[in-house]
Design brief:
Layout lengths: L9 H18 L25 H16 L1 H4 L5 H24 L9 H7 L5 H18 L2 H21 L16 H9 L20 H19 L5 H23 L11 H24 L7 H7 L2 H15 L3 E3 L5 E3 H9 L6 H25 L7
Antiparallel strand pairs: 1-2
GO molecular function: acyltransferase activity
Keywords: Acyltransferase, Membrane, Transferase, Transmembrane, Transmembrane helix
InterPro entries: DUF5009 (IPR032176)
Length: 383
């Protein structure tokens, strides 16, 4: 979610750019069979560096809302117009996510109706859109104190739902992949045809887990509101943000003992843990970049940050387009253009796992060149 000109935090653009570059790194390995452990999601419970990427982005969405809509919050006459704009943006994000899910990997034998009946409805961009809209409305309509209370209500309410409500057809509450309450709700409302194809019985961006994801966005909103305050001295801001971040991490780790940190379920402990880490990282970035003006190193990430959604969408669409182009191999077979490129220029020169990483780094650099040209020409595609 990029901000427009007023009150732009360079540290926020840096953090956003770093996060979306990390998204592209973990989503574009040369081979899914060869990935370094930190670049993979936790199998179920637990948290790897990769599991931090998505909640960091939603946290940043929340901070961005506080900055982009801060002046409009005080003027109630603009609320309806602002909410309609937020709804339009959310629908665009949701639509882009559906396009990525629907877009065929091969046009040969493509059946439009059949694909429509089996398209995955939840997804990353879809969740970003929903979280953005709900967080924006709550920011405009609630006081800071009530936003905080809403976060607490969501976290405890979700914990109660997931750990105390018996799952229909199972008979008891549980946190397993296919038998938890969220998985049951997804299968009931969306049916298996519209869920994550790798699982079919549950979805990591499912309906119920979007509720605590909203809490992640609201966590960012509160941090953004605090950063915008003019009546708090800079040193005190940074100290309070670090203290809050540390407290949230510790609370998340403590809650993990009973309600495990889990990205796919987006557990309440996961919200606190990742929100705390994001708060500390933003506070550190703010102190280094915006307060002390050490900003030379930020340019590559700012270039990514100002067109974050655009590059995420294109990086998901481009491999599908290019792999529709088939190239003959020496053994007489045919592979997609990107697969051929990887097998020709990376696989022969590195070990399998390093070839996979080198290809992912190449993708990041490739998009950086495009984004740098756009940045120099002041081309910012607002979504």
């Amino acid at each position: 979610m990029s901000l427009s000109k007023p009150q732009r935090l360079l540290s926020l653009d840096f953090f956003r750019g770093f996060t979306v570059a990390a998204m592209i790194l973990v989503n574009n390995p040369g081979s899914w069979a060869h990935i370094y452990a930190p670049l993979e999601h936790a199998e179920w419970n637990g948290c790897t560096p990769t599991d931090l990427v998505f909640p960091f982005f939603l946290f940043i969405v929340g901070v961005s809302i506080a900055y982009a809509m801060g002046s409009k919050k005080e003027d109630e006459s603009t609320h309806t117009k602002t909410i309609l704009k937020a709804l339009k943006r959310a629908l665009i994000l949701f639509g882009l996510g559906l396009i990525l899910a629907f877009f065929p990997r091969n046009f040969r034998g493509f059946d439009f109706i059949d694909s429509l009946q089996h398209v995955r409805i939840p997804g990353v961009l879809q969740r970003i859109g929903v979280v953005f809209f709900i967080s924006a409305v709550l920011f405009l309509k609630l006081s800071t104190k009530n936003i905080f209370k809403t976060i607490i209500l969501i976290l405890f309410g979700y914990w109660l739902l997931m750990t105390f409500i018996p799952v229909p057809g199972v008979g008891y509450a549980n946190l397993e992949k296919e038998t938890n309450l969220g998985a049951w709700l997804d299968r009931t409302l969306l049916t298996e045809a519209h869920l994550w194809k790798s699982a079919k019985t549950w979805d990591p961006e499912g309906i119920l887990s979007t509720l605590p994801a909203v809490a992640t966005g609201l966590f960012g909103v509160l941090v953004g509101v605090y950063l915008r305050r003019k009546d708090v001295e800079v040193g005190a801001k940074i100290a309070w943000l670090f203290s809050t971040g540390v407290a949230a991490v510790l609370l998340g780790l403590l809650w993990d003992l009973q309600f495990p940190i889990n990205k796919a379920l987006w557990t309440s402990s996961y919200v606190l843990y990742t929100g705390g880490l994001a708060t500390m990282i933003l506070a550190l970035s703010y102190w280094i970049i915006d307060v002390n003006h050490y900003s030379r190193f930020t340019k590559p990430f700012v270039v990514y940050g100002v067109n974050a959604i655009t590059v995420f969408f294109v990086s998901g669409l481009m491999p599908r387009l290019l792999n529709m182009i088939k190239i003959s191999t020496e053994d007489g077979g045919k592979v997609g253009a990107l697969t051929w490129f990887n097998q020709t220029y990376f696989t022969p020169y590195f070990s399998p796992i390093n070839a996979s990483l080198a290809y992912a780094i190449f993708v990041i650099l490739f998009f950086y060149i495009i984004l740098w040209i756009m940045y120099k020409k002041n081309i910012i595609i607002k979504v």
